[in-house]
Amino acid sequence: MMTMVLAAVLIAAVLLISGCRDTKTTTTEPTEVFLATMFDSSGHSNIVPNCGMLAASSTDGVNFHNVSDSIEPLYTPPANGMRDPSALYWQGQWYMVHSYAHNISSLVFLLKSSDLLQWELVGSLRLREDTGGPADNYINIPHWVVDTEGNVHIIACTNYDTYRNEIHPLSADPATWGDQDNWSAPATMTDANDNPLVQGNSFVALKDGTYYMAFNEVDVSLKKFYMRTSTDLVSGWSAPRLLDIDSSGMGPTGESENIIFLADGTLRYYISASNAIGNMIWYVDSADLGITWISPKLVKFSGFGPKKVNWAQFIRVVNPPTLEEMGH
């Protein structure tokens, strides 16, 4: 059975990483924490029909531990599984967006939680009309972006055309987010020449008014990674720049998993390499906004027993909620 103490690892992650589980232990609550969310599967999410969500937390963004004392999923959808769960901490609650595990429909689903353990379905959002027949209705890698004004957005890829699409709530009040009428119409993200962004897994981070987008080659066997920049989230993205990342030791494939800025301004890029085979996620850091990168290093996960970690999405939370705020 999951314990609330272990859910609080996101707030006092150092306790779990060190193996301490005493709620009376005095510790300094961290000013930042990292959360990794992933689907529960031995490979691609469509291998397991009813896969659910796992989560792990960290104080350094490298060493992650299961937020639960159980290896069972924290949340499993009623049907059709999930893929690519992505988290957001917003107005005192945790929110999650994910898509179907299978070629079912072009929808993403919104969940909320106060403690990371108990999740409630808020609603679903349609990103495009289903085409029927053999068409591919997958939605890939939906994830949250908070813009320069502090507004929330969701970016996702419609696998049918590989376009990047943006959608955002018309109100900052999460109580309205369960109704699609309270969201914008999906907008196709474009480059400076107004061409749709057709590319591999793409993630966005914001620093000093500029958005940075990292993505992989559509053919993941090439293990090439690129970056675009823009001062507007939806349009005006620069031409792609090939990143100088040594992927030679990663394995036969490479896919983007997230980019985040650390407290000191370092840009961290998480990359899944041959994950369906080797179940490995790497990270590379850049101190000069993506010009040069350190050699890839492995992200470490613990607390999941025999389960494998697949295609985790990562976020950094600054000034996370206290134990009391999470009800512990």
Would you give an account of this structure?
Strand 5 (93-99) and strand 6 (107-113) form a beta hairpin. The chain has one domain (4-318): Glycosyl hydrolase domain, family 43 (Tachylectin-2, Chain A, 5 Propeller). The two termini are 16 Å apart. The strands form five sheets. A five-stranded mixed sheet has the order 20-3-2-1-21. The chain has helices spanning 4-7, 13-17, 275-278, and strands spanning 32-39, 53-58, 63-66, 83-90, 93-99, 107-113, 120-126, 139-146, 152-158, 163-167, 187-188, 202-207, 210-216, 225-230, 241-242, 255-261, 267-273, 280-286, 297-298, 300-302, 313-318. Helices cover 4% and strands 37% of the residues. The protein is mostly beta strands and 328 residues long. The protein contains three helices and 21 strands.
Concise synopsis of the structure shown:
Helices cover 4% and strands 37% of the residues. The protein has 328 residues and is mostly beta strands. The longest helix has 5 residues, at 13-17.
How would you describe this structure in keywords?
disordered N terminus, 5-stranded mixed β-sheet, mainly beta, Tachylectin-2, Chain A, about 325 residues, about 5% helix, 4-stranded antiparallel β-sheet
Write the layout of secondary structure elements.
Elements: H1 4-7, H2 13-17, E1 32-39, E2 53-58, E3 63-66, E4 83-90, E5 93-99, E6 107-113, E7 120-126, E8 139-146, E9 152-158, E10 163-167, E11 187-188, E12 202-207, E13 210-216, E14 225-230, E15 241-242, E16 255-261, E17 267-273, H3 275-278, E18 280-286, E19 297-298, E20 300-302, E21 313-318
Parallel strand pairs: 3-20
Antiparallel strand pairs: 1-2, 1-21, 2-3, 4-5, 5-6, 6-7, 8-9, 9-10, 10-11, 12-13, 13-14, 14-15, 16-17, 17-18, 18-19
